[in-house]
User: Fold this.
Amino acid sequence: MAKLKAVVLAGPDPAEHQVVRWRCVDLQAEVARRFAVEVHESTVGRWLHELGLTRLQPRPSHPRKIAEAEETFNKLRQPADGGLARPRARWTRSRSGSRCYEAGHGLG
Assistant:
């Protein structure tokens, strides 16, 4: 079971496994390949549960992502005063009950 957990935590190699994240059906094939044991897909799911692993996946990141460029971009997007990048507008009701647009408001 420790070997299976190590395989899951290491993640798949897209070039070798042709997947970007493990699914139970992918792990079923990997278990058959590595350990020469044929098991049902639900058995793999049960093993993962017993190992304390969940089905929640972080959002995948692009393999050629440049962290420095992303940080620079996010810094450039923020205004110098620390407020919103541009004033937000909001819809309100007038005294007569009709909707009217008020520009230049913050997070109102």
